[in-house]
Amino acid sequence: MNLFTFFWKSSIGKKWLVAITGLIWVGYVIGHLLGNLQVFLGPEPINEYAAFLHSIPVGLWIARIVLIAALVLHIVLTIKLTVENRAARPERYQKRAYVQATLASRTMMLSGPLVLAFIIFHLLHFTTRDINRDYRTWVDGAGNTDVYRMLIAGFSSPLISGFYALAVVLLCIHLSHGFSSLAQTLGINSKKTMSLLSTGGRILSVLVAIGYLSVPAAVLFGGMGKAYKTERERLPVAINSTANQ
Amino acid sequence: MSVLDSKIPPGPIESKWTRHKFESKLINPANRRKFEIIIVGSGLAGASAAATLGQLGYKVKCFCYQDSPRRAHSIAAQGGINAAKNYQNDGDSVHRLFYDTVKGGDFRSREANVHRLAEVSVDIIDQCVAQGVPFAREYGGMLANRSFGGAQVSRTFYARGQTGQQLLLGAYSALNTQIAAGNIEMFPRTEMLDLVVVEGQAKGIVTRDMTTGAIRSFAADCVLLATGGYGNVFYLSTNAKGCNATAIHRAYKKGAFMANPCFTQIHPTCIPQSGDYQSKLTLMSESLRNDGRVWVPKKKGDTRAAHEIPEEERDYYLERKYPSYGNLAPRDISSRSAKEACDAGRGVGPGGLGVYLDFADAIQRLGAETIKQRYGNLFDMYHQITGDSAYEGPMRIFPAVHYTMGGLWVDYDLMSNLPGLFVLGEANFSDHGANRLGASALMQGLADGYFVLPYTLGNYLVPQAGNRPSVDHPAFKQAEEEVRARTSTLLGIKGRRSVDSFHRELGLLLWDLCGMGRSEKSLKRALARIPTLRDEFWKNVNVSGQNEEMNQALEKAGRVADFLEFGELMCLDALERRESCGGHFREEYQTKDGEALRDDENFAHVAAWEFKGDRQPPVRNKEQLTFESVKLATRSYK
Amino acid sequence: MNLHLKVWRQKSANAEGRLVDYEARNIPEDCSFLEMLDIVNEDLQAKGDEPIAFDHDCREGICGTCSLTINGIAHGPSATTTCQLYMRKFKEGETIYVEPFRARAFPVMRDLVTDRGSLDRCQQAGGYVTAAVGSAPDGNAIPVSKGKADLAMEAAACIGCGACVAACPNGSAMLFVGAKVAHLAYLPQGQPERDRRVLSMVRQMDKEGFGNCSNYYECEAVCPAEIPAIVITKLNREYAVASLKDTIGAA
Ligand SMILES: Cc1cc2nc3c(=O)[nH]c(=O)nc-3n(C[C@H](O)[C@H](O)[C@H](O)COP(=O)(O)OP(=O)(O)OC[C@H]3O[C@@H](n4cnc5c(N)ncnc54)[C@H](O)[C@@H]3O)c2cc1C
Ligand code: HEM
Ligand code: HEM
Ligand code: SF4
Ligand code: F3S
Ligand code: FES
Q1: Cβ(C142)–Cβ(C217) under 8 Å?
Q2: Cβ C103–A89 below 8 Å, yes or no?
Q3: pTM
Q4: Which residues pair with B623 in a beta bridge?
Q5: Best interface-test mutation with B: which of C60, C75, C89 has the largest number of B CBs within 10 A?
Q6: Which listed site, A160, B57, B539, B562, has its alpha carbon 20 to 30 Å from B603?
Q7: Bridging pattern class, strands C3-10 and C17-24
Q8: Residue A245: pLDDT above 50?
């Protein structure tokens, strides 16, 4: 036995890797959510936070590489597992019923790829800012990248907000099975904690979803940042943009 | 009449086995590999023998008709296994277990065998614990015991209500170690259809592969049969559907003697039958009688619901008739008492075929939780089958065929009169005499396989070295031909009646005429009717399909054909045993208060039947039983 | 009661199979599902047709021989074995699909009969304690706490029916293998071979072509022996620890 045979060849090891990579992303999703929630504190904190993160490029890139690697492994392995699992029942049942398998657990191969599609869009939207290249130029009063304004601008579009909401719901579904599932895969369930962890997992994924949804919802329905946005838009480009500096 | 030499070693009873072990012939490890052994059966007896012989280095081939050795019917035993450990410090000892078994068997077993059984019983528990059998434990970590019918000490070890399962899985795991080590080759879904005798010695078998239909011979230095009991001759019994008499009956027809076939045990606590469609009866472990009280209404034809019958109108008949053993009276006595009550019109439930087993007192005394812990799975099972809850009202129970004490005759070495044929477990006529005590069959199966046969086998094998025939020997060819011919006859009849309908008819007939009560009259009727039924079978049975495929109808037909012959022998044996003892109750022979009346003068012997040909009556040989350590006495559980 | 059956018929392992319609008439409510099939088979034979082949033996829920996926659920709608499923669970006139236990590791042999030898081979790979006959110490020399003994018993109750595999959307045998690994891992007797056992049982399980576990818990829901999914947690943990130990040479 070596690590390669464990993680790549054995049925259980493969699941461990899926769970570990999933766990890395769970960690990110929660951290990222906490970061995002700073938008409720107004423009400065979140912009400063973003600036702070970008001020340590090594750390940022290490994190990015870990995330990308984890995502790639997660995807490759889940595809591998799915192929094997299909092969394990070559002849389907003509009539199939489920007793207790949740819808979420049975649709991981749907919710997962859709979340991936969202992540790609999201990177183009807020990280590389290819969807609206103007975002690249926006800075706030302190000269930091104006993440706050970007969010407000982005989520002012019902279409974009709707898409984010959909993605977050899918993520929530993925995690509602994923949380408890990873506890099971990593062998940290016990007789007593088993149902606790699965309800806990579901609650946590709903909380994550509510957290994420709160931002577009606040923008779209709560009028959050409307004033800031109008104010920044009224300012001469020279002041709120890096374009002319 | 042939002489039956039981080869009981000389000396005092306590040292016979030790001495015999020392005097038995040994085979050195390098030479064991040269011996091939066929074991038919993978139940407690077969699996434990296979594992032990494999571990000793013999080349073993093991056969079973199920798809996996783990499914042998030993799996169904619920209650427990006896052993004279005296862990409870309640006065148990090897001698007491020996005494209880001889007495429980109504003095129709061989003292020396029973004593050996009691001696090795303690090793069995140790062996099973070492294998990881999860016996019930006390909080302190020590093994727990319960009491069981026919004993006044607590010597029964158990694993929930699944003792047989856990013991069999232990033996199966031991079997697996040897399969993995390459010492055992396992043949599941393979049915033995004949025994091959070469120059007067059992040297092989003919089998049918139940998947492909292939008829094939296997040769070996000796053949071990551990094929279980023949209770299915009654159609309805607590046995599995596949349990059969084919292996032992075929051996009988090849010259092995069939001993005491009329000794059948009717278990007192089964779930009553609910209709004609019913395919089997389900046992409720007798351990239920530890806390349940058996009763029927005092009034005849009382149709009130159980809870409407006041205490003083109930007859707790076991407690009344047998005050010292009460509800724990041995099986034959409990069953017969239930029959008496029902015959007297005091039975409960549909057709008046049932008595109550009531837990109300126990629930009040110990709480429902404790009762649930002790019998939860049995109560669930009862609920599943009947739709009723035994927590709320009493269970309804009725006796059912459960165990067969009779079987192939064996000597002290477990070898039949046919040299080279060894018989283990329920398949031999065994150590239980005319009645088996609860929790003693598991003990006997494992004793035979783990601790007895591996020692005694050498006595036959050593002089046999190099004497294994090949399957090309004409005896094999002839046996194969016979099997093929029989199979094609069955397939060719193309009659109108299904195999099951014959089996049902035979079963009902035997239950009525050779069941809990037998008489000369009833047995003679049975003996007149069975041959007619058998003739009809061979003219009018409908077996569809071919041999060269999986054909369950054909499998059943072969077994029922054998039951139709075996049933006759059983009735004949019952007729000739003109006394009542244990499970064999001849209505003509009873005391004034309806207890079994033994005739030690004329019947303290084993009846071993010798086959003389299809058209000849079989010959009844005797092995006289002597009782030196336990005094012949009337069994009393009052 | 009267029922419409759609039963999988397949002549042999290599033949094509299909669902065939049968009418089951005058079925008593108190009979078991297998007894219902007995009645149907009697009718078929009376008509000169071949009876439906299905596996069964003890008919009391303990041997694990009976199988059948009934209306898409292994062993049908009550969480027991098919032999302990009673017709009162069905409605008058209902259509019932009867299919074999399906999985790559359980090839169909005929009609509803499958070959579950793969489960035996997983056990042979290490589902035991090597304890030569004659070498055992006194039963009470190895105390086992009641709690551990109960846990072990709970896991050891597996009847080897394979319903877990049949029910699992992935055709995974994790519950079955987990049950044996857990049973022996809880007991002191199981310790010496603990790592070896889990490594080789999982290796065999993978080799047999069972699927992986996605934690659907369908297996647990249909398991007639009520083996809890916690044995899978245990299996995951045991396997990872043993693999790690083996990797660093400490197993
Ligand atoms: C419901 C029930 C409960 C019981 N409870 C208890 C209890 O609590 N305590 C107790 O001590 N005893 C109990 N008994 C009795 C005890 O279980 C059996 O007597 C004992 O298990 C028999 O074991 P065996 O190995 O002789 O046979 P079995 O376990 O019946 O094994 C027979 C083997 O032979 C094979 N076989 C049979 N015929 C053929 C053939 N023709 N070709 C190939 N293979 C064949 C079968 O495949 C099987 O492997 C109970 C019995 C029953 C039915
Ligand atoms: C409504 C909710 C969300 C908001 C408001 C939001 C906001 C942001 C913002 C502003 C950035 C850019 C940060 C920067 O580069 O300075 C970002 C980056 C990112 N977001 Fe989100 N996000 C949301 C949901 C998600 C979700 C659900 C995921 C993942 C599943 C996600 C994954 C990422 C990733 C991977 C990055 C890139 C991080 C990096 O720079 O490496 N986001 N997000
Ligand atoms: C990119 C696309 C994704 C795909 C295709 C995908 C697919 C899957 C699939 C199919 C499973 C189930 C695997 C199995 O049990 O057999 C799974 C599990 C899981 N996924 Fe994803 N996923 C993706 C993204 C994510 C993301 C972004 C996260 C976290 C935020 C995540 C977290 C998890 C977790 C925690 C599990 C549970 C692991 C386990 O069962 O042990 N996944 N994923
Ligand atoms: S775990 Fe349950 S479902 Fe699976 S084989 Fe064992 S008893 Fe059957
Ligand atoms: S249903 Fe299958 S996916 Fe796992 S939890 Fe059970 S083995
Ligand atoms: S037939 Fe034995 S479990 Fe169903």
Answers
A1: no
A2: yes
A3: 0.96
A4: B606
A5: C60
A6: B562
A7: antiparallel
A8: no
